[in-house]
Design a protein that fits this description.
The structure holds two protein chains of two kinds. Chain A is mostly helical. Chain A has a domain of about 150 residues: Alpha-Beta Complex (Nitrile Hydratase, Chain A). Helix content of chain A is about 45%, strand content about 10%. By secondary structure, chain B is of the alpha+beta class. Classes of the chains: A mainly alpha, B alpha+beta. Chains A and B meet through α1, α2, α3, α8 and α9 of A and α1, α4, α6, α8 and β4 of B. β3 of chain A pairs parallel with β4 of chain B, so a sheet runs across the interface.
Chain lengths: ~230, ~220
């Protein structure tokens, strides 16, 4: 291992400005965000660029506000969770979803940018699916929103294809030799959503309660859907 | 191009940095960069493939030094200048050149909702004959184009199986260089983990890639 490169990458991560941790399990609040008293250099450059583009009539600042609002508040993993829950309670919908994802997603009103052609791949006790984009950051925006930093990062993109089991282990998921791992590298304009396994013991739950259990990570394939700890409220 | 962005199979990139309850944007400027990218795209001075190539053209050290949205910002500035939307002097001063005319944005607050959610699909209605069929053994070509390509290095010269024909899509390699759409079939190709990584990989594991007709040859 080239330690110089390690140091270089570590400083790269620090320069990124995001509060991140090494271990997802301990991720909670270990690292405080870096609060800087002065605006960061990219912030100043973006402000200057935006004001130029507005003055030239190339963008409408209200449209920019709306785009930010859409991706911060309207489009996100709750959409995908709704699809998953529907598939769990409605076998006919699930069959349509797996055979023609695009049409079945349209039934629930999902399509559009970075989701024009979405394929849904099903996890079972014998098959585990994992989604990656090794070349950039392709991700099913309409169903999951914009991707998290780790999905776009070099560690995930480089390793998901050569060592998917190691990657999953890092996320706390250890798969046995009786499981087949399928990695989906999003190299063209097809997008992928993992249909996770419905957790055992969830038979009594409503569609809405099921949707509340489904996480972004499970729909990328780096986690399973689990029931909340006993005593937790649904 | 054989760039650092093509990182499937690279090692030594360190552990995955997971952030719990991660915000969509880590700072307001990231959201602005994202939105400006989307809205400037509506001028149709470039396309998605050219835009992806814009990030690939960053110097390798810059690619790793920059955060994701810093890359988008750098790409946005270069493409806006190259396409003539703005000049470098305007970007540096933050002010329009004296006497320059004012345009009207194609997307405004009125139509942004629909515009943000719909984008021209890369799927094409052209009747193109597929060169391969389901179940066929194929080999990814050993090619090293200097421009944009969506054929990662880790599958070149490796053999796989056609699992599905996705239909006809425009070809990124030519579209990124504004050399035409060259519509062709895209297939889901399954490569066994052992074919890609050797005998230490599990025999049952595999990697699926969506590959264009021009990337493949009969095995």
């Amino acid at each position: 291992m080239d330690t110089t490169r390690r140091g270089f990458l570590a400083s790269t991560v620090a320069a990124g400005g995001a509060a991140m941790t090494q271990n997802p399990v301990q991720a909670a609040d270990e690292h405080a965000h870096d609060h800087q008293p002065l605006p960061s250099e990219p912030a100043l450059r973006v402000k200057s660029l935006e004001s130029l583009l507005v003055e030239k009539g190339l963008v409408d600042p209200a449209a920019l506000d709306a785009v930010v609002d859409i991706y911060e508040h309207q489009v996100g993993p709750r959409n995908g969770a709704r699809v998953v829950a529907r598939a769990w309670v409605d076998p006919a919908y699930k069959a349509r979803l797996l055979s023609d994802g695009r049409a079945a997603l349209r039934e629930l009103g999902y399509g559009g940018a970075q989701g024009e052609d979405t394929l849904v791949v099903e996890n079972t006790p014998r098959v585990h699916n994992l989604v990656v984009c090794t070349l950039c950051s392709c991700y099913p925006w309409p169903l999951l929103g914009l991707p998290p930093a780790w999905y776009k990062s070099a560690p995930y993109r480089s390793r998901a294809v050569i060592d998917p089991r190691g990657v999953l282990h890092e996320f706390g998921l250890t798969l046995g030799d009786d499981v087949e791992v399928r990695v989906w590298d999003s190299t063209a304009e097809l997008r992928y959503l993992v249909l996770p396994e419905r957790p055992v013991g969830s038979e009594h739950l409503s569609e809405d309660a099921l949707a509340a259990l489904v996480t972004r990570d499970a729909m990328v394939g780096v986690a399973k859907v689990t029931l909340p700890q006993k005593g937790a409220r649904l | 191009m054989n760039g650092v962005h093509d990182m499937g199979g690279e090692q030594g990139m360190g552990p995955i940095q997971y952030e719990k309850d991660e915000p969509v944007f880590h700072a307001p400027w990231e959201g602005r960069v994202y939105a400006i990218n989307r809205m400037l795209g509506a001028w149709r001075k470039w396309n998605l493939d050219a835009s992806r190539h814009g990030v690939e053209l960053l110097a390798p050290a810059d690619y790793f030094r920059m955060s994701y949205y810093e890359r988008w910002l750098a790409r946005l500035i270069e493409m806006s200048i190259k396409s003539g939307l703005v000049t470098r002097a305007e970007v540096e001063s933050g002010k329009p050149a004296p006497g320059s005319s004012k345009a009207t944005p194609p997307i405004t607050a009125v139509n942004v909702e629909a515009a943000a959610m719909i984008r021209a699909s890369a799927r094409r209605p052209d009747a193109v004959t597929p060169r391969f069929k389901m179940g066929q053994q194929v080999r990814a070509r050993n090619m090293n184009p200097v421009g944009h390509t969506r054929l990662p290095r880790y599958v070149r010269a490796r053999s796989g199986t056609i699992e599905r024909d996705h239909g006809v899509f425009l070809f990124p390699d030519t579209n990124a260089r504004f050399l035409g759409e060259k519509p062709q079939h895209v297939y889901s190709v399954r490569f066994s983990a052992r074919e890609l990584w050797g005998n230490e990989a599990r025999p049952q594991d595999s990697v699926y890639l969506d590959l264009f007709d021009d990337y493949l040859e009969p095995a």
